[in-house]
Amino acid sequence: MFNEWKGGTTRGRGGAAAEKATAYHEAGHAVIGYLVGETLEYITIIPTGDAWGHTVHKRLGEDSDPAYSEDDEKDIRLENVSMMHLAGRAAEELFSGAEVTTGSEEDTEQAIVDLLYIWPPREIETQIDRLRAEAKELLQKPENWHAIEILSRTLLDRRRLDGPEACNIVVAAIEHFRQGSSNS
Questions:
Q1: Is CB count within 10 Å lower at the N or C end of the chain?
Q2: Cα(150)–Cα(84) distance, integer angstroms
Q3: Cβ atoms 73, 95 nearer than 8 A
Q4: Does residue 118 contact residue 68 with C-beta atoms inside 8 Å?
Q5: How far apart are CA 151 and CA 142, in angstroms?
């Protein structure tokens, strides 16, 4: 049903350029996750299986998972988590300057699963497009893009970061950028 717009085939293995694109992709997930208040467990560009990298946020237990909750913040939380899933592709597109059509299918599928809790199937494509655009808009803010660049470089050097360390890098990069901008 959603195959025509969710992406192409799985990205193949491919050298330094692909690894750099993966670092930006994973950093996009992490920065949006930070901005929407998700707790990062770890981030890596070490390939496993078909995946070139992973950004893992802590999953909540069923009692506090927004998909199972009846509280008013459920919709916002599910949209935020979905935007986080879509942010990898958005960051990779901003980095490359071209539309990315491969490698983000699982991210889009997870966003679809989450959004189906709050939107009817006929509206999913519109919501995916809207949330991807919102992620891209947030990532284009200079302080957030600075954080992606710093986190990407660190990932290329270290290949895996624990959540608190990655979060500290994001926070420090954003603060450093803001301080530099206010001193100009």
A1: C
A2: 18
A3: no
A4: no
A5: 14
For 55, the enclosing helix (H) or strand (E) is strand 54-57
Active-site residue flag, 79:
no
Coil/strand/helix, residue 163: helix
Catalytic site residue from 26, 38, 79, 93: 26
How far out from the chain centre does Cα 184 lie?
30
163: domain range? Answer: 3-182
Q: Rounded distance, CA 48 to CA 97, Å?
A: 26
Angle of CA points 117, 109, 13, to nearest 5°: 160
Q: How far apart are the C-alpha atoms of 59 and 134, rounded to whole Å?
A: 23
**Residue 43 near residue 27, CB atoms below 8 Å:** yes
Number of Cβ atoms within 10 Å of the Cβ of 153? 14
**Average pLDDT in the chain:** 84
Whole-number pLDDT of residue 7:
34
Q: State the CATH number of the domain containing residue 86.
A: 1.20.58.760
Domain count, the chain: 1
Q: Where are the beta strands (DSSP E) in 98-183?
A: 160-162
| Alpha-carbon Rg for the chain in angstroms | 16
| Average pLDDT value for residue range 101-128 | 90
* pLDDT score, position 99: 81
